[in-house]
Amino acid sequence: MSLRQLPKIQALQIDGLTWEAPVSALAKWPAEIRAADTEGESIINIYGVIGADFWGDGITAASVAATLRQIGNKPVTVSINSPGGDMFEGIAIYNLLRQHPAEVTVKIVGYAASAASVIAMAGDNVLIARSGFLMIHNAWVCACGDRHYFTEIAAMLEPFDAAMADVYASRSGQDKDAIAAMMDAETWIGGVAAIEQGFADDYLPADQVTAEPEEAAAQSAARRLDLVLAKAGLPRSERRSLMKDFRGTPGAAASAMPGAGDLVADLRSVIATLKS
């Protein structure tokens, strides 16, 4: 290799270490998933297609895993505006975020569709723009063959749809059959509906309406209680169900299952203590 053919080298300072790499390699690094540290907040931006495309672009599980390793055991915010893409990459990214040892906050700034909506469900706290959207649907595949082959393809896709429905149901607390019906219909869920149906916890800060002091304190206490229950090992679906009972009337909670009234009363006592 002649000197004229040598690649141009650019030095980077990362965590006090110097890293030298060809400029051509840096140009190919997917900037949309690079971790940004803003005032102590580690941010991963998922702005694009999930999974590598023909040209090598897109968000992959490998690149997200590398970014999480760089962040370490610190809270992370994942900002999403994506049409979706590869379901397997989406599920892998979802599981990487679920396994992250610190709190994960997901912010849906535009839309999280298809595989991106699966990733959004990984947040311990999911915030959505009032004008934002989630879109959930069944898995897609391109196939070519006779009717017998297509029957086999339809059967093959069933467990994939069931896996995604389980993710949505676990996060939202909704019945899995109801979620499956929404996926069959390819459902677009706006910001307001996403919060009402349990897919998201609140609006993005810019869209949040200032609450009365008592209401704001109760919301904060409820979120803290949810984190306490999560750390205690209570599954997300059970936490969602309990929080829904808490927000409802004691009579309705008590009629839902034997002993529920006492449990909800205990939860109210814990939240009152957290508020004090």
List the main descriptive attributes of the protein structure presented here.
single chain, 276 residues, 11 helices, 2 domains, ATP-dependent Clp protease proteolytic subunit, two-stranded antiparallel sheet, 2-enoyl-CoA Hydratase, Chain A, domain 1, hydrolase, 10 strands, disordered N terminus, alpha/beta, eight-stranded mixed β-sheet
Describe this structure in words.
The chain has 276 residues and is of the alpha/beta class. β5, α3 and β6 (104-113) form a beta-alpha-beta unit. The strands form 2 sheets. Strands 3, 4, 5, 6, 7, 8, 9 and 10 form an 8-stranded mixed sheet that branches. Strands 1-2 form a two-stranded antiparallel ribbon. The protein is globular. Helix content is 47%, strand content 19%. The protein contains 11 helices and 10 strands. The N and C termini lie far apart (72 Å). The chain folds into 2 domains: 8-208, 2-enoyl-CoA Hydratase, Chain A, domain 1 (Alpha-Beta Complex), CATH 3.90.226.10; 210-276, no CATH class. The protein has helices spanning 23-28, 61-71, 87-99, 115-120, 147-172, 176-184, 191-196, 213-231, 236-247, 250-256, 260-275; strands at 9-14, 17-22, 36-38, 41-46, 76-82, 104-113, 125-128, 133-136, 187-190, 202-203. Residues 1-31 and 249-261 have low confidence and may be disordered. Keywords: Cytoplasm, Hydrolase, Protease, Serine protease. Pfam families: CLP_protease.
